[in-house]
């Protein structure tokens, strides 16, 4: 069941970064961060196939996946989006950053835009995220964005849930 319907793919403009649809021309630059069902692409062809599946998921109303773009350079620095739960008015928020952009605040800015979009445009009632216990930077990112740990999952991951700042 479709939970949201947009005539045009929703691009989200922020002051430092923007979220936009990933285009075919972007795919060669995103191979190392192209994933679908926890499988990483190894070739441009695999990344393109994964992106086609992601695009189909969007058209079916099951997910939304953006490229995070530096507004000054217009380079895609990473990706983020909602990948599960939309049919229940919830969203699992995920993200991946190209290594050369680590530690520069891009993911904080991109995820903040995605959170605002999820809450205020899609109308999500719950946003959650999961990361591995070994991914300290992701845990710090989630905590900075007002997520709190809610569960230790059996397969080496931790689940976080967004709390609204008071």
From TrEMBL:
Molecular function per GO: protein-N-terminal-alanine acetyltransferase activity
List UniProt keywords, sorted A-Z. Answer: Transferase
Residues spanning the membrane: none
> Entry's Gene3D superfamilies?
3.40.630.30
Asked if the record carries the keyword Transcription regulation, the reply is no
Cellular component terms per the entry's GO annotation: cytoplasm
Domain N-acetyltransferase span(s) in chain numbering: 17-166
Which portions of this protein are annotated as coiled-coil regions?
none
Query: Which InterPro entries does the UniProt entry name for this protein?
Result: Acyl_CoA_acyltransferase, GNAT_dom, N-acetyltransferase
> Would the keyword Transferase be found if you checked this record's keyword annotation?
yes
Its protein name is: Ribosomal-protein-alanine N-acetyltransferase
**Originating organism:** Chryseobacterium oleae
């Amino acid at each position: 069941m479709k939970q949201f319907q947009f005539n045009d793919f929703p691009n989200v403009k922020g002051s430092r970064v923007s979220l936009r649809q990933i285009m075919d021309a972007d795919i060669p630059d995103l191979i190392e961060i192209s994933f679908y069902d926890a499988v990483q692409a190894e070739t441009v062809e695999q990344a393109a196939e994964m992106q086609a599946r992601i695009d189909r998921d969007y058209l079916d109303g099951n997910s939304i996946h953006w490229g995070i773009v530096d507004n000054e350079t217009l380079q895609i620095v990473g990706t983020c989006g909602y990948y599960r739960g939309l049919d229940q008015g919830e969203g699992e928020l995920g993200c991946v950053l190209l290594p050369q952009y680590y530690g520069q605040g891009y993911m904080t800015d991109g995820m903040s835009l995605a959170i605002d979009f999820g809450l205020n445009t899609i109308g999500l009632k719950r946003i959650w995220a999961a990361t591995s216990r070994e991914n300290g930077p992701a845990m710090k990112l989630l905590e900075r964005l007002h997520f709190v740990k809610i569960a230790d999952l059996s397969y080496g991951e931790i689940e976080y849930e967004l709390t609204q700042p008071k």
